[in-house]
Design a protein that fits this description.
Layout lengths: L1 E6 L2 E6 L6 E4 L8 E2 L5 E2 L4 E7 L5 E6 L2 E2 L4 E10 L7 E8 L25 E2 L5 E2 L12 E7 L5 E14 L2 E7 L1 E7 L6 H24 L3
Parallel strand pairs: 6-16
Antiparallel strand pairs: 1-2, 2-3, 4-5, 5-8, 7-13, 9-12, 9-14, 10-11, 10-13, 14-15, 14-16
Length: 219
């Protein structure tokens, strides 16, 4: 069963399938605009992905990098942005997406599956790598950061508002809050209909919280 709807400009869809089943928001939306002092202005709007996983299983989310007047930046750090009052998962993996015709979605393994020819998506190192946050890259797609989070307590909803990206531009260090949010609904066994509904309903509230955080952020 699949259902889709639009919430504040972000397309939301949920689908049931696989061993655990998955709910996922469309991840092909750019992160919220962020402007650091003399840093890059990252473009886009708030988006959120939701995945159901087992305890300790990674939930993978995508941060698409696009900026006004893009210039090369060196990536040096990444931190999760917590949502007040919501359990924060552990950051388990981070990488740049390699050359690809699309972005991972509905993904709960690492490297993320579902790539060309049924192979995992290509990934490359994140730390210390120089990228252009351009509107077009990798065969027409902007570059993207993939981050995987893990929650360990069964029957718990973990979530983050996005990531805080640390980068170097022209020898100076900056940070940018990118609101590519992720929700990981942790269940010990295949999710029931009631659990799917609970996870999906919680997504509404979380998305509104993330939108509020992004709206109050400077830039």
């Amino acid at each position: 069963m699949t259902r889709k709807r639009s919430l504040l400009g972000a397309s939301f869809s949920s689908a049931r399938g696989g061993l655990i089943g998955t709910l996922a928001a469309a991840v092909l939306v750019l992160p919220a605009c962020t402007l650091g002092p003399n840093g890059l202005r990252f473009l886009g709007s708030v988006n959120m992905g939701t995945v159901t996983v087992r305890p300790g299983e990674p939930a993978v989310f995508t941060v698409i990098l696009a900026a006004a007047a893009p210039r090369p930046i060196r990536l040096v750090s990444i931190r999760l942005i917590p949502i007040p009052g919501v359990p924060t998962p552990r950051l388990a993996h981070v990488a740049l997406l390699g050359p690809s015709m699309g972005y991972p979605a509905y993904t709960r393994d690492w490297p993320p599956s579902g790539g060309p020819g049924g192979r995992p998506f290509p990934i490359r190192p994140f730390y210390g790598v120089t990228v252009w946050p351009a509107e077009r890259h990798h065969r027409g797609l902007p570059p993207a950061v993939l981050y995987a989070v893990v929650g360990t307590v069964p029957n718990t909803i973990y979530a983050v508002a996005g990531v805080r990206l640390g980068y170097v531009l022209d020898g100076r260090s900056y940070t940018a809050a990118l609101y590519a949010a992720g929700e990981a609904c942790v269940f010990p066994s295949p999710a029931t209909t009631a659990q799917f509904n609970w996870c999906g309903a919680r997504s509404d509230t979380l998305f509104k919280q993330v939108s509020k955080l992004a709206g109050s952020a400077p830039g």
